[in-house]
Specification:
The chain is built from five helices and nine strands; from the N terminus they run H-H-H-E-E-E-E-H-H-E-E-E-E-E. The protein has 196 residues and is α+β, with helices and mostly antiparallel strands. It has one domain. The strands form two sheets. Strands 5, 6, 7, 8 and 9 form a five-stranded antiparallel sheet that branches. A hairpin with a 4-residue loop joins strand 6 and strand 7. Helix 1 packs across helix 2.
Length: 196
Amino acid sequence: MTPLPPVTPAAVWRPAAGFMERFHRRCDGRQGAAFDACFAAEMAAAGASPAALDFTRRLDNEGFLAALDPTGGRVSVAHVAYPFRANQNEAWLLVNGSPPLIDVDDFDRLDLTQLDASPVYRTIRRRYPNAMLWPGQRGPAGPEVGDGGREIVVGYLLRDLCHACAIVGRVRFAFEFGNDGRFLGAKLRAVTPAAK
């Protein structure tokens, strides 16, 4: 398998004013993969660079790279916009390591047994039996970076069941990388109850 080229600032794309309206006029009659492919085609027609289009293809044509933050290490933080998602339109992906792309909100990457073992988490679950882990704010500020870019700390929310339900706690996991950019795992850093 050919290694993916590194993600660079050349892959950042900022849609011009009016792009989304033009896109919807041309693509709204399509569904599924055809809708997503139409989005990528409209990006190309609007002048998106080959690097931006390549990154969008990595996202199955469902989003684009809005910004790229270096961390001081091998891995960078990609700020991704998913314009068609119902709730969470912004995401952070960790790129240029091994694996080449990690979605911080792919909970399969988190060692949730550490969360289950946390006394604070167990206390929250006793009070809120329906508490569930949800992504935190994924805005332009980006996650906390430490240890020369080898550690990226990401915040999550504990909500009382649903996306719009009350926040009952906060969780932080540290994504750890070797000097070579190899992902070593995500370790629980903290669980705190929500302020009353």
